[in-house]
Specification:
disordered N terminus, about 20% helix, single chain, about 100 residues, 4 strands, alpha+beta, two-stranded antiparallel ribbon, 3 helices
């Protein structure tokens, strides 16, 4: 893996492009959610595929304190994080395919 992929300070927040399936206990404002064709309640994404909860002005999650459980479990710098960042780097900026998890 490249040094870029291993350094959190160079992170492009690729995880904020993954499909986040919400659980019944997640208390997320409706304006941040969407329903998939399969009927799953998920975090909504903007036209470019980024989570709508991102505060672009401050470059952080605007609902961090009440973020979904799956986001809380995501291990920054962990194996899955490094894997999706490497895939992102291999495909160029904003080229990672959007996937369900």
């Amino acid at each position: 893996m490249s040094d870029h992929v291993d350094q959190c300070d160079a992170c492009d927040a690729v995880c904020c492009r993954l499909t986040v399936t919400l659980q019944s206990e997640d208390d997320i404002p409706e304006r941040f959610t969407d329903i998939t064709d399969a009927g799953l309640r998920v975090m909504a994404r903007d036209e470019e595929g980024w989570c709508v909860a991102i505060d672009a002005a401050r470059m952080c999650c605007s609902i961090y304190e009440t973020r979904p459980e799956v986001c809380r479990r995501f291990a920054m710098g962990g194996p899955y994080c490094r894997e999706i960042r490497a895939e992102y780097a291999d495909h160029g900026a904003r080229g990672i395919p959007l996937i369900m998890y």
